[in-house]
Automatic annotation (TrEMBL):
Active-site feature positions: 114 (nucleophile)
Domain of life: Eukaryota
Annotated protein name in UniProt: tRNA pseudouridine synthase A
Name of the gene: LOC111442957
Catalytic reaction equation(s): a uridine in mRNA = a pseudouridine in mRNA; a uridine in tRNA = a pseudouridine in tRNA
Length: 520
């Protein structure tokens, strides 16, 4: 037998070595503020730099609107939004390449407040870098004290602070004296009272601003220069206004001397039932000999002014049940879906945007700020247009002061009617809260509630310290509402009597029809 040759074993080519993939890193939780790169071997040359992710959040904050041209960013103007965006960049929430480009981080605001209007519960949303911890503190450190960040909430990726906001609640603080028809009357009423036994005392504020009534106290020049502090003002019904240099009649006198000073003068503010006890320096200069029987003693002049109005002072205006019922009845006329083209600017009557839905409007409570009693008017609506709330308040106050009939509101809400209505000062208005009812109901099981509940205490402190104090002090120092009240007349707003004229025409037509039938 032949021997079989030994079989040769074939050698397989060398197989390339397969590297095992690195284990996948776990996702960071929404509350984690550090990355897994911290667990680096000590043998590594250098640890990797921490990397953070952008998070979609809703930021809750408040601000006092004084000195700002509104909320929305406007080139060349000082706005709340511009300061907030810059603070977000400085806090590291926005990268350098996105600075000033809000669309890149999905910026949205819940409400757009006007110039000088404040907010307690404003909300904005966007995608920001909120890590490392201390995001809120970093923001506040880069903002002025009149802007305060309360906190933030994680929201869904599709959340938009403007589109997801169901309702907005605004509050307007109107002084009680503004609802008194006899307080701070218009110039025509003051002129008409001359020579009668029911003369109105000329308002000090109007004299200061140049709205003078000629010959109110006779042919004379009576000047009162005062240096008043808030402690010197003791209001009887909350109607007290700090007035620096004021005239009672005539032009300012630069040559008043210390010999003309009076230690204390008591002056009533135009039939309002409120007495201003003015301490400090008061200078009076009287010129001419015809004083309408008042004599040459300035103290006698002030005394006569005070005595003549003592009876009116005792019956000062109060926001009682009758006044409250009437004011709320007026405000309720705005509730519902209406065409508010007469209560804004730049929006035509046929524009669908003019139709707005007001959910509620009431004035049930009063608050005392800086010694002045204010009525707290709360209005809730889906959304509001430029100046809409201020014009709604302006017309309501005009009706309370008997400058216009209640039926004028229904007429102003008609699409085919154009009426010029008064605009109340901006200082008393602030955004109270933005509500997200539908969103919270839909995402209640997976996300935090988007509301101000967690920040109620700090928000109340900010409101009292910055917003309410500003409203009260502004009325004391500048008399913003008191001066505005003098503009509520038919000369400035002839449309305020349009309803009366229509009623008169209807009455005349009815009367003519009856006479014609009688003759027939």
């Amino acid at each position: 037998m032949e021997e079989e040759p030994p079989t040769q074993t074939r050698r397989s080519p060398p197989q390339p070595s397969i590297e095992e993939p690195e284990p996948k890193k776990l996702k960071m939780s929404s509350t984690t503020t550090t990355s897994d790169d911290e667990d680096v071997n000590s043998n590594s040359a250098a640890p990797k730099k921490q990397r953070y992710k952008r998070r979609k959040i809703a930021i809750f904050f408040a601000y006092c609107g004084v000195g700002y041209q509104g909320m929305q960013k406007n080139p060349g103007a000082k706005t709340i939004e511009a300061d907030l965006e810059e603070a977000l960049y400085l806090a590291g929430a926005v990268p350098e390449q996105d600075r000033g480009l809000s669309k890149r981080y999905d910026w949205a605001r819940s409400a757009r407040t006007d110039k000088g209007v404040s907010a307690v519960g404003q909300v904005v949303s966007g995608r920001f870098y909120i890590d490392p911890p201390g995001f809120v503190d970093r923001l506040n450190s880069n903002l002025s004290p009149q802007i305060r960040i309360f906190g933030y909430k994680r929201v869904t990726a599709s959340f938009n602070a403007k589109k997801f906001c169901d309702r907005r609640r605004y509050v307007y603080l109107i002084p009680v004296f503004a609802l008194d028809p006899n307080c701070h009357r218009d110039r025509e009423s003051v002129k008409a009272s001359l020579g009668s036994g029911n003369e109105l005392v000329k308002c000090l504020e109007c004299s200061e601003r140049g709205r003078k009534v000629e010959g109110l106290m006779g042919k004379r020049n009576f000047e009162v220069k005062t240096a008043i502090s808030e402690s010197d003002i003791s209001p009887n019904s909350g109607n007290a206004i700090e007035v620096p240099d004021v005239q009672a009649n005539g032009a300012l006198e630069d040559n008043a001397t210390a010999s003309d000073s009076i230690k204390e003068t008591s002056v009533l503010v135009e039939n309002s039932g409120t007495e201003l006890n003015v301490g400090g320096e008061a200078t009076a200069k009287i010129e001419g000999s015809e004083m309408s029987g008042l004599g040459n003693d300035s103290e006698n002049v002030a005394s006569k002014e005070s005595v003549n109005r003592n009876e009116k002072s005792s019956g000062s205006f109060k926001y009682g049940e009758e006044e409250k019922a009437r004011f709320n009845r007026i405000l309720k006329k705005y509730v519902g879906t209406h065409n508010f083209h007469n209560f804004t600017t730049r929006t035509k009557a046929e524009d669908p945007a003019a139709r707005r839905f007001i959910i509620s409007f009431d004035a049930a409570t009063t608050v005392v700020v800086e010694g002045i009693e204010f009525v707290k008017c709360e209005v809730v609506g889906q959304s509001f247009m430029l100046h809409q709330i201020r014009k709604m308040m302006g017309l309501a106050v005009a009706i309370m002061r008997n400058c216009a009939p209640e039926s004028l509101i229904e007429k102003a809400l008609q699409q085919d009617v154009n009426i010029n209505v008064p605009t109340a000062p901006e200082v008393g208005l602030y955004l109270d809260e933005c509500l997200f009812t539908s969103y919270n109901q839909k995402w209640k099981d997976s996300h935090e509630e988007v509301s101000m509940k967690a920040y109620e205490e700090v928000a109340e402190d900010f409101k009292m310290k910055h917003i309410y104090s500003h409203i009260g002090s502004t009325e004391h120092k500048e008399g913003a509402v008191a001066l505005w009240l003098h503009s509520l007349n038919h000369r400035n707003y002839p449309d305020l009597r349009v309803a009366d004229e229509a009623a008169d025409d209807n009455a005349k037509n009815t009367s003519v029809g009856i006479d014609t039938q009688a003759e027939t």
